[in-house]
Task: inverse folding
DNA sequence: GCCGTTTTCGGCCCGACTGTTTTCAGTCG
């Protein structure tokens, strides 16, 4: 059983324990362990073999035992018994906004309700009203929640949520009395998908801000409106929270609501160790100790907040509650890559295959981005659904690109490449003799997704060992919120890539973001070279590289870890030397 | 269930909002 699956089961245990009304801290311990396992950067099997599970944060003797059982036996009797004791519909009930474990248990104990349909019926019959702690409004809210269940529980791509959030922030900043307005939450942490939008605002006239926010045209429903917090649902189902804070409180609130929850816990613990209490309200002497609230510490930026706690500034992308606080304590943070570091990109399509813009248009697009070069990599013949090209057609493209460069039709230099399909048996889709003519080759899987992990890994590694392979395209093939990636042992692929001097792409298409940020820190330390590629199918798509920067930053990558931060001359030389070295 | 420079028990982050109450529980983030 892999890390992801084990983490999922541990998370389920947490939910089940809460539904049973067990000690919430016991339940939370499982959640913490789930996070640790999910974020583990090394091979779980190794850790187990070396008996190092209990060294991991939040994992003690008992959980280590359970994780080991799951890993070896692919099942856990404790989990199976627990699961059997919970009615099947409880998980779905939990999806209804406003319904938590306690209420679900109460409704079940009193009325035997264990499904959404039964709950809906009971609400309509007014049966819930009679229960202690329930009333007319609770019933109405539950009914509304059920009606929009699918829509409300939907997650969103970072790219889309971010566009909406930035628009609202722009509007807020236009309000005269607003002094600060920022996006917080998982958007600021640049997570790949987003549940809802969190905004933090400081303003002189708070009531006015709340009135403006709850009445913007995109709002479908005002869920809550208070003096310091309002929540709205936009058309399309996205939820937006706005919190109003004082000027002094702003950076504490921004930090707190940027999260993650796990990061905040670590920060509070760090504060407590210094006899300080940290919250969204501020930082001051611990409650109960001398002068609570009396001598609050003031900060004018998040940097100062970290500094007061003896920490180096932790970029929002790294606040996932992994080891960032420990590293910040030591004061040794890498300088993360930035958008401006990118000098060109390699994986792009044109009208020759399934792109929407021509070679010239894409090259001029690169000019507008201020880049020095752009690589064109249209599909190979097996990808007929994407208008893939055969050797002859690709050769024509190659000549066109050479002419383009000779005539200097764009400021940016155009590299000749291809996104070459990896066939089922691991061979490449184009003749070796032709691949040698190109500047670089992106190798990707676009078909036969249903191989088992062993076969798929073997297939990918065989492609990596091909002397012409330069870059691995979207390594798992996942489509966020749409399709799981194919089964593949990414750690083995990483090792093979390093051994064969093949680079790994961060496919920056907002729907892919593949290879996932969780792998990068360790992989880069081992020596894996990264390329951030927008996989652009039109000029606008070139802008996706920014989503790739998010992934790179979340993966602790610096400019040096990313190939396309190098200038044209250096890139030309590297690709030339590489070919000579590998005979590709 | 985990954890320990207040260590092997007794904590475990904490506050706003809602809807239910009449001082609070549950949910959410």
Result:
């Amino acid at each position: 059983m892999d890390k992801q699956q084990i983490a999922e089961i541990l998370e389920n245990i947490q939910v089940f324990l809460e539904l049973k009304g067990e000690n919430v801290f016991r339940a939370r311990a499982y959640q913490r362990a789930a996070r640790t396992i999910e974020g583990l950067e090394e091979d779980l099997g190794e850790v187990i073999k070396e008996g190092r599970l209990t060294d991991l944060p939040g994992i003690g003797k008992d959980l280590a035992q359970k994780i080991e059982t799951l890993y070896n036996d692919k099942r856990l009797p404790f989990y199976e018994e627990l699961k059997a004791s919970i009615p099947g519909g409880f998980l779905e009930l939990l999806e209804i906004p406003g319904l938590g474990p306690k209420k679900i248990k109460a409704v079940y104990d009193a009325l035997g309700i264990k499904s959404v349909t039964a709950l809906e019926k009971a609400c309509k019959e007014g049966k819930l009203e009679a229960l202690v702690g329930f009333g007319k409004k609770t019933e109405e809210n539950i009914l509304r929640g059920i009606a929009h269940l699918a829509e409300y529980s939907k997650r969103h791509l970072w790219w889309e949520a971010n566009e909406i959030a930035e628009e609202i922030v722009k509007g807020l900043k236009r309000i005269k009395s607003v002094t600060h307005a920022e996006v917080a939450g998982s958007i600021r942490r640049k997570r790949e998908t987003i549940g809802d939008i969190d905004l933090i605002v400081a303003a002189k006239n708070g009531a006015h801000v709340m009135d403006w926010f709850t009445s913007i045209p995109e709002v479908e429903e005002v869920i809550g409106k208070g003096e310091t917090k309002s929540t709205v649902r936009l058309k399309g189902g996205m939820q937006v929270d706005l919190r109003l804070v004082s000027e002094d409180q702003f950076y504490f609130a921004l930090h707190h609501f940027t999260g993650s929850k796990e990061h905040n816990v670590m920060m509070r613990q760090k504060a407590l160790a210094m006899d300080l209490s940290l919250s969204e309200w501020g930082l001051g002497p611990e409650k109960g100790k001398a002068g609570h609230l009396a001598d609050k510490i003031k900060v004018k930026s998040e940097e100062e907040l970290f500094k007061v706690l003896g920490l180096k500034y932790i970029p929002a992308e790294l606040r996932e509650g992994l080891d960032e606080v420990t590293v910040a304590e030591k004061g040794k943070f890498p300088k993360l890559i930035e958008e401006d570091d990118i000098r060109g990109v390699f994986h792009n399509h044109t009208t020759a295959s399934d792109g929407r813009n021509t070679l010239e248009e894409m090259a001029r697009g690169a000019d507008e981005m201020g880049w020095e070069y752009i690589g064109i990599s249209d599909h190979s013949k097996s990808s007929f659904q994407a208008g893939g090209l055969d050797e002859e057609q690709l050769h024509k493209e190659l000549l066109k690109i050479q002419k383009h460069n000779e005539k200097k039709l764009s400021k940016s230099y155009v590299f000749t490449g291809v996104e070459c399909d990896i066939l089922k048996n691991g061979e490449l889709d184009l003749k070796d003799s032709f691949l040698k003519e190109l500047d670089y080759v992106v190798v990707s899987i676009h078909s036969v997704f249903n191989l088992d992990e062993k076969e798929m890994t073997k297939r990918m590694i065989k492609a990596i060992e091909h002397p012409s392979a330069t870059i691995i395209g979207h390594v798992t093939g996942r489509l966020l919120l749409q399709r799981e990636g194919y089964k593949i042992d990414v750690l083995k692929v990483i090792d093979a890539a390093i051994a064969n001097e093949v680079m790994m792409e961060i496919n920056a298409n907002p729907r892919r973001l593949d290879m996932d940020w969780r792998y990068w820190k360790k992989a880069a330390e081992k020596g894996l070279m990264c390329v951030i590629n927008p996989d652009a199918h039109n000029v606008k798509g070139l802008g996706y590289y920014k989503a790739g920067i998010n992934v790179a930053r979340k993966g602790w990558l610096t400019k040096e870890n990313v190939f396309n931060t190098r200038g044209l001359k250096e890139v030309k030389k590297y690709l030339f030397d590489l070919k000579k070295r590998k005979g590709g």
User: Anything to note?
Assistant: The radius of gyration of chain A is 27 Å. Residues 288-294 of chain A have pLDDT under 50 and may be disordered. Residues 352 and 397 of chain A are 8 Å apart (CA to CA).
